[in-house]
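Hi Y.,

Following your request, here is the sequence exactly as I used it, all 138 residues.
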Amino acid sequence: MKGLVAVVGLVLLAGMGAYAGDLEMFAGAGPGGAALGEINAAITLYNAIIADLNETPTIDGTVPLIPHLGAGIGYYAGEQFWMTDSLAIGGKLEYFRTETSTSGATQAGMRRRRLRSISAARSLGSSSPGGSTSSPPG
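Below is the corresponding structure, written out as tokens. Let me know if you'd prefer a different format.
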């Protein structure tokens, strides 16, 4: 349902461009960069705990370490309305996501434990630039 709303919204915005004159729309996707240092530091701490449990002789089974979060894919879309030849007002919407996970099972005596860990980072943001000094399209 969200996809349908997004497509209908983009079609309506694209149609407005014919009536608005100097309305510039843009969209794209690519590798997203985000500061994941604090999240990866927590993952390193969890990996130390998992490594200690894997080395404990009274526990059978191993759990793979959690890979660090890296670059994911980012999407963006926006529009600018050129009020004059050198002033544009607009906005931009951005979305970024990356994910990592691990799972495994251990057994200590008669007790069996399952471990499943999923770490994800998501970012949804918007910006509204004050103006632009470049020339409009066309």
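The helical segments are 2-20, 37-55.

Thanks again,
Q.
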